[in-house]
Amino acid sequence: MKNKTLEFAISDFKMDKDKGTFSCYGNIKGNIDHALDRTLNGAYQKSIDNHIKNGTMPKMFWMHKSHDLPVGAWSMMREDSSGLYMEGKMSQTTMGRDIEVLAKDGALDSFSIGYRVVKEQWNQGDKCNDLIELDIREVSWVTFACNDKSLLQSIKTSLNDGKLPSKADLREVLKTTDMFSKREIERITAAYNPVDECKTLHELLAQSAMFK
């Protein structure tokens, strides 16, 4: 079981400017994202049922910063035909008010769910990883949803600065290509160490045949 995040640019975000309450989709199902993950119908429901049973809700953070205080609270969530529908309210803390002002101005409109994978399966036909069941831990406000272009630009900037990409960034980039299987990607990134000159990115990719 893995802890992961899944980011989505909000297409249906509504905020009550007087009360600070809002509704949105924390995640849309059925589409293959930049990391080749696809959330299937029913993937959220067991987690939703468990939250209702235990009287809990996922936490609301800023950029998945779970070591910081929450910025608001979720009041309702459900799975519908589109995905994970959420309703929440911003807390009147400094960070909560800042996010609320930016959202009202239209500067923020994206979210990312933090979840634990309970059940998943690689779909060879569609070349994607089907997420069958998720344990939803938190839903964060994010500056923008991650995508291939922003990720690749970030890595290009690091390389231009004389730095190597992190393990996480390397894994995500490899997932966007058809060159490696999911198992090969995990083996490559497991062996890769950006601070170890003996295991540079160039060497690992050049020797990738050894993992097949």
Structure explained in plain terms:
With 212 residues, the protein is α+β, with helices and mostly antiparallel strands. Strands 1, 2, 3, 4, 5, 6, 7, 8 and 9 form a 9-stranded mixed sheet that branches. It is globular and about 50 Å long. Mean pLDDT is 78; it is low at 147-151. The chain contains 6 helices and 9 strands. The protein folds into 2 domains: 3-142, no CATH class; 148-211, no CATH class. A hairpin with a 3-residue loop joins strand 6 and strand 7 (83-90). The chain starts with a strand and ends in a 6-residue tail after the last helix. Helix 4 packs antiparallel against helix 5.
Count of structural domains: 2
Estimated helix fraction: 25-40%
- Low-pLDDT segments, ≥5 res: 147-151
Radius of gyration: 19 Å
